[in-house]
Design a protein that fits this description.
By secondary structure, the chain is an alpha/beta fold. It is built from ten helices and seven strands. It comes from Pseudoalteromonas luteoviolacea NCIMB 1942.
């Protein structure tokens, strides 16, 4: 807006009033601009974080030194510097690649590849050669799936004497063998194969339909789908038994994820997962159970856990706080937030302190991964606990210095 000097009033009081009004307008504009700048900055941070998630390296490896915080947090104090340079992380020696032996329990067929009789003579003096040893190698042979038809024959019996006397005789025959789905062509082995391919190896029923068709068997996906429902009902008692065993464990893990369901809203279909046990099979009570819901509400976890009061390892989702379990945070998710924040800022500094401490914890876990449970406990109490305490102290120290909405 342009002001015409000739149009301004000569009255000083009126001029002062106009000046104050203009100052208020300018101040309001400045506030609006500052608010828009903050919104633009926040949107750019969210956009950069999304780009990092989609296109950055998935390993979350941390390059050199970096910083998460704003200008007010750029300078490291002496204690932070000490945390960055103290106790280098455990370095894993690079192992020479070596082929693992094939499992000993596999059937083995020996194939001897020998010289022709005419070649078993010395090229120098033509005298016969003698066997001094042998070299051997192993290769895997794949035998395609073998399908056979089980023809069940049940002889029928009747009484010839009663027939001669004109007496109606009862026809006797053995009862049919127990079957998971009576009067169907499905045997336990066939059902197990279909279930394993679909739920363990992710092979949909329509593709299994094609696989069966390739070997001349007409087995529609509709039929297999109905079999899956029948099997789910049959396995329900086993599921409940496993659930009872799971909830009897002192420590369990929980998570939930969006699930694509045909003819259902993706945003409301969730598979909740609960598990317990060790990383290696056979060393503990290893159970993994799935619980489908069309909701992500905390009541889903409350209903499944049914008053469970042990420790539950989760990712920080607020819904789990409605349960009676003692929640245990996931260090991988904590680290991921620092990695994301590090990608949003070019400046270097304090974020590396947290990542450095977390890296030391990872190094300890790598070093003790093959130890017994008791040995792991002692190592964690002696080596890991001081680092966790230091990380906690550092977070508390800086929590009030970082704006709540800082990416």
């Amino acid at each position: 807006m342009k002001l015409d000097a000739h149009a301004l009033p000569d009255d000083p009081a009126q001029l002062k009033r106009m000046l104050l009004e203009l100052q208020q307008v300018v101040a309001k504009k400045d506030e609006e601009l500052a608010e828009k700048d903050a919104q633009i900055h926040e949107l750019l941070q969210a956009y950069n974080a999304k780009l990092a998630k989609e296109y950055a390296k998935k390993s979350e490896k941390m390059p050199g030194a970096g910083e998460l915080f704003n200008e007010a947090e750029e300078l490291l104090d002496e204690h932070d510097k000490a945390l960055l340079i103290s106790s280098p992380s455990v370095k894993k020696e690079k192992a020479t690649p070596k082929r693992k032996p094939l499992p000993a329990q596999l059937d083995r067929v020996e194939v001897v590849v020998d010289l022709d009789e005419g070649d078993k003579v010395c090229d120098c003096c033509q005298n016969p050669l003698h066997k001094m040893g042998e070299s051997s190698s192993e290769a895997l042979e794949f035998v395609p799936a073998h399908i056979k038809v089980i023809k069940t024959i049940r002889p029928k019996y009747t009484c010839r004497h009663c027939e001669r006397e004109g007496i109606e005789s009862e026809v006797k025959t053995a009862p049919p063998p127990a079957a998971p789905i009576p009067k169907s062509i499905a045997t336990p082995s066939l059902l197990s194969q279909i279930i394993t391919c679909k739920y363990q190896f992710g092979l949909p029923l329509y593709r299994q339909e094609t696989v069966f068709a390739e070997i001349g068997i007409e087995l529609s996906r509709q039929t297999m789908s109905s079999w899956m429902l029948r099997c789910a009902a049959l396995l329900s008692p086993l599921y409940q038994h496993l659930k009872k065993a799971l909830l009897a464990q002192p420590v369990i893990h929980g998570d939930e994820t969006v699930l694509n369901v045909i003819n259902a809203d993706k945003s409301t279909s969730y598979m909740w997962l609960y598990c317990c046990g060790d990383d290696k099979p056979g060393q503990g009570t290893n159970i993994v159970l799935f619980d489908y819901h069309n909701s992500r509400a905390g009541q889903c976890a409350v209903d499944f856990l049914d008053g469970y009061q042990g420790y539950m390892h989760v990712d920080g989702y607020k819904a789990y706080e409605q349960t009676q379990a003692t929640l245990v945070a996931c260090l991988a998710h904590i680290r991921r937030k620092f990695i994301e924040a590090k990608g949003n800022h070019k400046k270097t500094g304090k974020v590396d302190v947290a990542l450095n401490l977390i890296g030391k914890l990872y190094g300890i876990e790598q070093a003790i991964k093959d130890k017994t449970v008791q040995e792991k406990y002692r190592a964690r109490q002696h080596k890991s606990k001081p680092i966790v305490d230091e990380l906690h102290h550092w977070l508390i120290k800086h929590q009030d210095k970082i704006p709540p909405k800082t990416p």
